Amino acid sequence: MSDAIDDIEEEEAFGISDKLVSDVMEAVDADADEVVEDLVDPLHPADVAHLIEQLDDKDRKEFLRVWPGGIEGEVISELDDNLREEVIDSLDEEELAEAVRDLDSDDVVDLIEDLDDEQTEAVLEALDDSDRALVEQALTYPEESAGRHMQVELVRGPEHWTVGDAIDFLRSDVELPEQFYHIILVDPRMKPVGYVTLGRILSSDRKTPLKELEEDSFRTFNVEQDVEEVAQAINHYHMITAPVVDDDDRLIGVITIDDAMAFLEEEAEEDILRLAGVGEGSLSDRVIETTKNRFPWLAVNLATAILASLVIAMFEETLSGLVALAILMPIVASMGGNAGTQSLTVAVRALATRDLTDANVWRVVRREVLVGLVNGIIFAVVMGAVGYFWFGNLTLAYVIGAAMVINLAVAGLAGTGVPIILEKLGIDPALASGAFVTTVTDVVGFFAFLGLAALWLL
Amino acid sequence: MSDAIDDIEEEEAFGISDKLVSDVMEAVDADADEVVEDLVDPLHPADVAHLIEQLDDKDRKEFLRVWPGGIEGEVISELDDNLREEVIDSLDEEELAEAVRDLDSDDVVDLIEDLDDEQTEAVLEALDDSDRALVEQALTYPEESAGRHMQVELVRGPEHWTVGDAIDFLRSDVELPEQFYHIILVDPRMKPVGYVTLGRILSSDRKTPLKELEEDSFRTFNVEQDVEEVAQAINHYHMITAPVVDDDDRLIGVITIDDAMAFLEEEAEEDILRLAGVGEGSLSDRVIETTKNRFPWLAVNLATAILASLVIAMFEETLSGLVALAILMPIVASMGGNAGTQSLTVAVRALATRDLTDANVWRVVRREVLVGLVNGIIFAVVMGAVGYFWFGNLTLAYVIGAAMVINLAVAGLAGTGVPIILEKLGIDPALASGAFVTTVTDVVGFFAFLGLAALWLL
C-alpha cells in the first residue's frame, strides 16, 4: 500500500511528500527548531500552508510553537479559511504586523473576512495608514463583489502615451505592483479605454503610440459585480487582467487571472460539496464540527424519507397481501433517485455555466423527460423479466415495469424543473435541489408501484 | 418568470443575451445573411461558440449555412467538443484551411483530438509545413500529457542577457507568440534556469542583467507529466507560465495560465458529472446520445438495487409478520446512502486536491466513522421516537435505532474507504465510488434492520 503511494508521488508535479510531513512532525516532537527550519524554509508559502493543513490539532499547535519567527503573511493567506484564526492567534502582535505588511491589499481583505472583531482590529492596526485606508475602502463593498476581491495595485497611463513614455514611466521610481502584465489606458476622466500587453510594448519602437498596440477586445467590470461572474468572464474571454470601475466608470482596481482561477476552483469545490449535502467544512475540521455540518442535510433527508414511508403506509393492506411488493419496491425508488440525480446534476451545472438559459430551457426539459422515458422503457422490460422469473407473477411484472417508466420520466422532469425553479426564486440550486428531487422520486416511485399493485393485483 | 430572468441578466458580466439568440434565429429563419452578419460579427469568438451551442440541431444547420465565409478557427476551438465535428463538416476545404491557419499549435492539437481520421487529414493538410511538423510532434506525446497541451510558441534568451539585449531581440523582426508574459532564461544546453517577468524588464535599466531580475520561485515540468497536475501546480503556485522540458531537460514549450484555468474548470465539471453517474456528454447532445450516456450507471444501479432486494427477500417471513417493517426499512437505507455520499464526496475531492494523503488517511477515516456514529445516535433517538409513536412498539423503536447507528457508521467507513481503495487501484474514484458505497449502505441497512427485527421482534 505504501509502495503504491510512493510510486504515485514520484510522478507528482507539485506539493510536498508524505515523507517531508513525517520528518517535520518528528523534528517538531523532538523540539529540534533548527531541523524544522531547514526543512520548511526552502518551501513555497503555498506548500508551507499545505503542510500545516496536513498536521493534526496537536502537531499543528506544536509546530506553530516551535516555528521560529512566526508564520509569513503569504502562508496565512494560502491557508484554509478555518485554520487562519488558529494560526493568527498563535502570533504575537509584532509577528502579526510583520506578516500582514507583506501582503497585497486584496489578500489582507480576504484574510480579514474570516477573522473575529478583535483579530480584525489587530490586523488593521498593523497596517500602514495608506494600506489601512485601502482595506477599509474595500470592506465597504458587498461581500462576493469585485470590489472586495480586486487588487488596487495596477499600472495605468493616458491614452496619448507612446511606448517610450510608458518605459520612462516604468523606469522612474514609481511604486509598481508585484506582478502586472498590462498597461491600462485611461482618458482624462480616468475612464479605462483599452489596454496594451507588456509583450507588445517591449517588442515595439519607442515612438509607437500605445493606442496602436491596443488589444482587440476590452471589457470593464463594475465594482459591485459578483466576483464569480468576473472570474467566469476572465475564463470565458481568456483575459489576464480584468479592470474594475466604479459607478462613474473610473478605473479603481483589477482582478487578476490567478485570483480568478483560485476563486473558480473554490466555487466548483463548493458546488460539488453542496450537491452532496456536505455544506461548508474542510478535512481539518474536528468530529464535532463535521457532525454539525452534515447534520442539517441528513435531517432534511430523514423528513423526506418519513414522507416516503407515509406513502408506503397508505398501502399497508396491499403490502401485507403480497410480500414480494416489499422486496421489489426499493428498486423503483432507487432507479428514480439515480435518474433524477443525473438530470439534476446536469441542470445545476448548466445553470452555473450559463449553458441553460431561457432560449433552450424547454428543449432541455423535454430532452430529459424523453431520456427518462426511453431508459424507463428499457429498464421496465429488464425489471419486468426479473420480477416475472423471480416471483412467477406476470401482473407483478407489469406493475413494476409501468412504475419504472413513470418514475424515470418524472425523475427527468423533477431533475430539471426543480433546479430551474429554485434558480428563478434566487435559491442556490446546488444546495437544495437534491433533497427535493429524491423526495419526488421516492414518493412517486412508491406511490406508482404500490398504487398500481393495489389496482391490478389485489 | 420572464421578468425575473431579465433582472438577472442585467447583472451579468459576460456572455450573450437570450434576446440576441432569438434575434439571430429570426434572421436565420428569414435567410437574412446581412442581419446575421451584423449581429454576430461584433461578438468575441467565445460568444459566437456559445451562441452556436444554444441553437438546436435544425437552427444550427441553418445558421452554418447562412453564415457567410465560414466559421473562424478561434470559434471552433471554443466550441463544445461534440459540436466541433458537425461544424467542421459544414466547412469546405478552403474554409477549413483558413480557419486552422489562425490557430496556435496547441489549439490545433486540441481540435484534432476530437476529429475522425478524414477530418484530421484535412486539417493537417491545411497547415504550413512547419506548423504541421509541430502538431504531429505534439501528437506523439501521451493523451492528457503536458506535451499534448503545451504551446510551443515562447520567448527564451541566454542567461547572460541584459535588459537591453532582451528589448533589442524583441524589437527585431523575430516572430513572437500572440501572448507572452515572461522571458525564460536558458543555459547553453537549452535547459531553462529561471524566468523574468516582462514587468521587471520594462521597469529596469537597459544595462541590468536579466539574472538579477529573476523570479524567486521557478519550476519546470516534464513533457509526459499529466497536464491536470501541471494545471493544479499553476494554481497552487500562482504561476502565469509553466515551462515544459523534454527528458534531457531542454525547454520545448509552455503551459499558460489561461489554458490551465480552462482545463481545471473542465476537470471539476467532469468530476461533478461523474459523481452523479452522468459521464461524458453535454447539453447539446440528442436524446439518443444522452440516453446511452446515462444508461450504464442506471444499469449498475439496477444490479445493486436487485442485490439489496435479495437481502430483503432473505427476511420474507419477518416482513410478512409485521408490515411496519416494510414501511420503515427504506428510511434506514436512505439515511445510510446520504451519509455515505457525504463522506465519499469529501474523500473524492480531498484525493483530487491532494489534501488526503498517507499522512492523514487514518485520521480522516476515523473522523468519518465517528461522525457517522454521532449522527447515527442522534437520528436513532429521533427515529426511535417516531417509530414508537407511529406503531406503538418499543422493540421496533430499538430495532430501527440500532440499525441507524450501524448503517451511519458503516456509511462513514465505506464512504472514505471505497474511494481510497479505488485510488490505490488506479481507478478514478469519482467515477466508481457512488455505486459501491450506496450498495454497501443499502445492503447493510436492510440487513441490520430486518436482521435485528428477526432476532428481537418475532
Automatic annotation (TrEMBL), chains A, B:
Protein name per Swiss-Prot or TrEMBL: Magnesium transporter MgtE
Domain CBS as annotated: residue spans: 150-212, 213-270
Role description: Acts as a magnesium transporter.
Gene3D superfamilies to which the protein is assigned, alphabetical: CBS-domain, MgtE N-terminal domain-like, SLC41 divalent cation transporters, integral membrane domain
Locations listed in the record: Cell membrane; Membrane
NCBIfam families on file: mgtE (TIGR00400)
Keywords, in A-Z order: CBS domain, Cell membrane, Magnesium, Membrane, Metal-binding, Transmembrane, Transmembrane helix, Transport
Domain of life: Bacteria
One Pfam family in the UniProt entry: MgtE_N
UniProt keyword annotation of Cell inner membrane present: no
Transmembrane segments annotated in the record for this chain: 295-315, 321-348, 369-391, 397-422, 434-457
InterPro entries associated with the record: CBS_dom, CBS_dom_sf, Mg_transptr_MgtE_intracell_dom, MgtE_N_sf, MgtE_transporter, SLC41_membr_dom, SLC41_membr_dom_sf
Main localization of the protein described in the UniProt heading: membrane
Any single GO CC term annotated in Swiss-Prot or TrEMBL for this entry: plasma membrane
Record-stated family: Belongs to the SLC41A transporter family.
Membrane-topology annotation of the record: Multi-pass membrane protein
Molecular function per GO: magnesium ion transmembrane transporter activity; metal ion binding
Self-association state and partner proteins as the record states: Homodimer.
